[in-house]
Amino acid sequence: xxxxxxxxxxxxxxxxxxxxxxxxxxxxxxxxxxxxxxxxxxxxxxxxxxxxxxxxxxxxxxxxxxxxxxxxxxxxxxxxxxxxxxxxxxxxxxxxxxxxxxxxxxxxxxxxxxxxxxxxxxxxxxxxxxxxxxxxxxxxxxxxxxxxxxxxxxxxxxxxxxxxxxxxxxxxxxxxxxxxxxxxxxxxxxxxxxxxxxxxxxxxxxxxxxxxxxxxxxxxxxxxxxxxxxxxxxxxxxxxxxxxxxxxxxxxxxxxxxxxxxxxxxxxxxxxxxxxxxxxxxxxxxxxxxxxxxxxxxxxxxxxxxxxxxxxxxxxxxxxxxxxxxxxxxxxxxxxxxxxxxxxxxxxxxxxxxxxxxxxxxxxxxxxxxxxxxxxxxxxxxx
Length: 383
Known about the structure:
By secondary structure, this protein is mainly beta. The chain folds into 3 domains: 4-136, Nuclear Transport Factor 2, Chain: A (Roll), CATH 3.10.450; 151-264, Immunoglobulins (Immunoglobulin-like), CATH 2.60.40.10; 267-359, Sandwich (Immunoglobulin-like), CATH 2.60.40.10. It has 4 helices and 24 strands. The strands form 5 sheets. Strands 2-1-3-4-5-6 form a 6-stranded antiparallel β-sheet, covered by helices on one side. A 5-stranded mixed β-sheet has the order 8-15-14-10-12. A hairpin with an 8-residue loop joins strand 4 (91-100) and strand 5. The chain starts with a strand and ends in a 24-residue tail after the last strand.
């Protein structure tokens, strides 16, 4: 998709901005970009002050679980520096620069962070992806590395780029049923006689390295990296990115890839997991029938939770809302539970649908690698 980049001439954290448009850009009426800059500034201002709960209102509802799971490094002085428009006026990529203190660098450095915002329900909302660290997937310096590389290091990185070539940077897996295991091959060629190590970074949910693939990129033509995509936790359109880091002589060179496809589930659940913050007692879940048959949900099997109103029959293409309520007076921190929605008859071979619940959710202070980034030794059987 062709995009029109707009550079901000000036942007205040809670103010408006003056934009310079290319001469050929057509005049169009749409959602206010001034309002976008104001909301993005307010959102990042709250994050800078550590007010994560208040900033939640600026996040798209479908992204709030991803937002709550994120751990952000310390930063200060956020400022909107760039907007990247798409053909859809209700979708804009916003780049914010913050100040960060990195190892080996005594003074704070500028660090760009890029996120997508959408205009829905009369306001701009941030779209938070499932990448474990939004600060790691930007065009700026790598986490824990100096902002500027020495000329010698850059020459070494260029040598790696010249030696290591991937056949393509796009993965298309088409349409699959939820629960299917998708093998993914990244074909490459490496000149020279020495191997290069590699690692997977910023992997979307379900994508992992096959243990049998090894951690070395071997010299020669027609080589490949084997990855696996598990779809038990995925549904709908998938459009994500991930990075392969080639590592040599202590230097990392990133190769960016996109992965796209569609995962079909007879019954989609939004959100797929619920997180109750302290003080919250009820949350709404939207169920959508994606099949060509009516889905009759008889009951919900859930410990210490109540799901109403049920039973209910959902027509093909229709949506239905249920409310999940807490039944106990007290729960422990990060109390985990699961809800199983049981069907009267199997639909497209599926007998039930599940969603996970976390009560009194508190993000872990210590970073833990997400389960979907852990290496796979063998694919799981479809449900």
